[in-house]
Structures are given as structure tokens and as C-alpha cells.
Automatic annotation (TrEMBL):
Family classification: Belongs to the HAD-like hydrolase superfamily. S-2-haloalkanoic acid dehalogenase family.
Catalysed reaction equations from the record: an (S)-2-haloacid + H2O = a (2R)-2-hydroxycarboxylate + a halide anion + H(+)
Enzyme Commission code(s) on record: 3.8.1.2
Classification lineage: Bacteria, Pseudomonadati, Pseudomonadota, Alphaproteobacteria, Hyphomicrobiales
PANTHER family: HALOACID DEHALOGENASE, TYPE II (AFU_ORTHOLOGUE AFUA_2G07750)-RELATED, HYDROLASE, HALOACID DELAHOGENASE-RELATED
Protein name, UniProt field: (S)-2-haloacid dehalogenase
Length: 253
């Protein structure tokens, strides 16, 4: 029986591409490139810190990734502008179907489980207005690890008393799907661009835009680890999926 619906935050409930308005205003013509490299390095640096055994919180990771991005592109930002750009991660735009999906799932515990630091998550959730639609916001910071470390996913049982087999984990991030499946969650992957649509974009763009390259790297099902139990193209499809899965036993990973 499903007792809880657990969401990733960045890229799942909140659109990381929404920082592009600010990055392009700061550096016209470079906004999309900054946005893609920044997000890729943000993830890479979280894993790098984890593998080195030198944990820092996700806010520091986010700033380090932005420093790398601007330096690589030969762009300079004073302290005020740097902080203004970095702060956009605390004001990400929620996907337009997020609020309605959360409202429709009110019979379940609804939680975020994210790599974001507690302050970052409080800021972005509060800014979005989704705070009243969530029962818990779980940050990996208390474990001093990053997803997909299995210890991160243990937060759900530690803090809410919900076992993996009693939850549906929802993410658009392939690494997160693999991590959640590895510890026994049923997982719904949000596939906002299909493999066919991505291939068409890659073939029609010469050269591919930074946003399309990002989608090729980060928006598809990973080929290592177990696949998701279900795929949906948007959060709007989630309530119907939950109804269909509610009484099914979790499959073995």
C-alpha cells in the first residue's frame, strides 16, 4: 500500500531552467549556456565532494559550480551580481502542473527528499507557494551525504516512519531514479522529453543548442541500475498513476 509520495525537488517540482532569465539578463547571449553548465557542475560537484569524503552543503556546491561556469566562459561578476545569480536557485519557478498534482494527492503524505540544504529548500518552497501542499521537506544535509547515496533515501523512514515499499518516489533525474530503485522504492520517472523527440532535436539543430545537449545528458533514463517502474510525461499524469499503483505490491529491485 502506498502511504507517501516523495518528490525530488530540482528538475522535478522546480524548473532549473528558470534561472536562464536571470543569467541571460546578466550576460546577454550566454544565459542558456551558463544555465546548462551550472546545473551539470552542480551535480558533478555534489558527487565529487561525496566521493572525496569532504561533504559541504548544497549551497556551497551551487556557488562553486557557478564560479566554475563563469570562469570557464571568461565572464566576470562582482560580488553583488554573483550573489544575485546564485540566489535564483532559491526562487526557482515550479513546473506549472506541480500545485495541482500535489493538491490531487492530498490523501497521501507528500514530501520532498532533496540534495538541497535546509535553507535552500525552505526558500524555494516558500517562494513557490507549495509549502502548504507538502507534509515534509527532507534535506540530505542531516546525513551529510548526497543522493544517490543509499543513506539519503533512508531519511523517509527515519523521519516519517515510511518504508521504501510504502512510498512512490517521483523524479525526473536519472541518477535519482537509480538511487531510489536501489533501496527498494517504487519509482515514477518524469520524462518531459521522449527519446524520439530528443533525437529529432539533436538531428535538426546544427549544432545542438546548449539546452538540447543538457537534455541529452540529464533527461533520459540511465542505462545502469534498475529502470523506473513507470514513466509519465508530466506531473499532471501523476494522480492517475498513483491510483493505478496504489494497491500493487512493490516489485523487487
Amino acid at each position: 500500500m502506498i502511504r507517501a509520495i516523495v518528490f525530488d525537488a530540482y528538475g522535478t517540482l522546480f524548473d532549473v531552467q528558470s534561472v536562464a532569465d536571470v543569467t541571460d539578463a546578466a550576460f546577454p547571449g550566454h544565459g542558456s549556456t551558463i544555465t546548462q553548465i551550472w546545473r551539470l557542475k552542480q551535480l558533478e560537484y555534489s558527487w565529487l565532494h561525496a566521493l572525496m569524503g569532504r561533504y559541504v552543503d548544497f549551497w556551497q556546491v551551487t556557488q562553486e559550480a557557478l564560479t566554475y561556469t563563469l570562469g570557464t566562459l571568461g565572464l566576470t561578476a562582482d560580488a553583488r551580481l554573483f550573489d544575485e545569480i546564485a540566489e535564483t536557485y532559491n526562487r526557482l519557478t515550479p513546473f506549472p502542473d506541480a500545485a495541482a498534482a500535489l493538491d490531487a494527492l492530498g490523501d497521501y503524505k507528500r514530501a520532498i527528499l532533496s540534495n538541497g540544504s535546509p535553507d535552500m529548500l525552505a526558500a524555494v518552497v516558500g517562494h513557490s507557494g507549495l509549502d502548504t501542499r507538502l507534509d515534509a521537506i527532507l534535506s540530505v544535509h542531516s546525513k551529510r551525504v548526497f543522493k544517490p547515496d543509499p543513506r539519503a533515501y533512508g531519511l523517509l523512514e527515519d523521519q516519517l516512519g515510511v518504508r521504501p515499499e510504502e512510498a512512490l518516489f517521483v523524479s525526473s533525474n536519472g541518477f535519482d531514479v537509480c538511487g531510489a530503485k536501489s533501496v527498494g522504492f517504487r519509482v515514477a520517472r518524469i520524462a518531459r522529453i521522449s527519446p524520439d523527440a530528443l533525437r529529432q532535436a539533436l538531428q535538426s539543430e546544427s549544432p545542438p543548442t546548449p539546452a538540447t545537449v543538457f537534455k541529452a545528458l540529464r533527461s533520459q533514463q540511465e542505462t545502469c541500475g534498475a529502470p523506473a517502474d513507470a514513466e509519465i510525461s508530466s506531473l499532471a499524469e501523476l494522480p492517475a498513476l498513483v491510483r493505478a499503483l496504489a494497491d500493487e505490491p512493490a516489485r523487487a529491485s
